[in-house]
Design goal:
It is a single chain. This protein has a five-stranded mixed β-sheet, with helices on both faces. Helix 1 crosses helix 4 and helix 2 packs across helix 3. The chain has helices spanning about 50-65, 75-80, 85-95, 130-155, 160-165, 170-180, 190-195, and strands at about 10-20, 25-35, 65-75, 105-110, 120-125. By secondary structure, the protein is α/β, with parallel strands linked by helices. The protein has a single domain, classed as 2-Layer Sandwich (Nucleotidyltransferase, domain 5). The chain starts with 11 loop residues before the first strand and ends with a helix. About 40% of the residues are buried.
Length: about 200
């Protein structure tokens, strides 16, 4: 069972990102402040849930959270500052948008750049341990998937509706055939070319 609080009595915001390992599309991040008594037996790491479950949980989280926010860093920004820094920046942007200033930040993963003077704690696989991080993982994932489905209409050859920008065989073959779009991260070019050698 996932835990409610790292520091009971503190206003905590769970933070997570989605799309870090993609070849195309922005990286999305979410920050979520849940009520101390929030309970949901289904809520877990977004990767362990079906799309239908994630979409249902998104509605619950957005309705019941004390505050939530989603933010992005686009492909051009990722190329400028690298994907790791972009992930931190997306989280910072999400935290900035909260209408509650948290006392503490719970970050999924093992690295983070401090946000202003708010103390934080990095938790490896935190989206499977704390409800607020799991909630953030749900919002980041569902909002990003929604975005990728929209731009799939603009560039259907890359099958983003299906692969969400991740480096599937079909996606890499589409890049080889059609080239890059404005949504592709050019700093991954060398890795893509290597992986395209089937």
């Amino acid at each position: 069972m996932l835990l409610n609080n790292y520091y009971p009595g503190k206003t905590e915001a769970g933070c997570d990102e989605a799309g870090r390992g993609c070849l195309a599309g922005p990286v999305f991040a979410a920050a979520v402040v849940l009520p101390d008594d929030f309970k949901n037996e289904l809520l877990n790491d977004s990767k362990k849930l079906t799309e239908k479950q994630r979409d249902g949980l998104r509605k619950v989280i957005e309705k019941e959270a004390l505050s939530w926010a989603v933010a992005t860093v686009n492909a051009q920004e990722i190329d400028d500052i690298n994907i790791l820094n972009a992930s931190f920046w997306a989280m910072h942007r999400a935290i900035e948008k909260l209408n509650i200033t948290p006392d503490y930040l719970l970050i999924d993963g093992n690295r983070f750049k401090p946000y202003k003077k708010i103390p934080h704690h990095c938790i490896i696989k935190g989206d499977g341990k704390y409800l607020s991080i799991a909630a953030a993982s749900i919002l980041a994932k569902t909002h990003r998937d929604e975005f990728m489905k929209k731009i799939d209409i603009e560039y259907p050859d890359y099958l983003w509706k299906k692969n969400k920008g991740y480096p599937t065989l079909q996606h890499k073959m589409a890049i080889q055939k059609h080239g890059f779009t404005p949504y592709h991260r050019r700093t991954f070019n060398a890795n893509i070319q290597t992986k395209l050698e089937f």
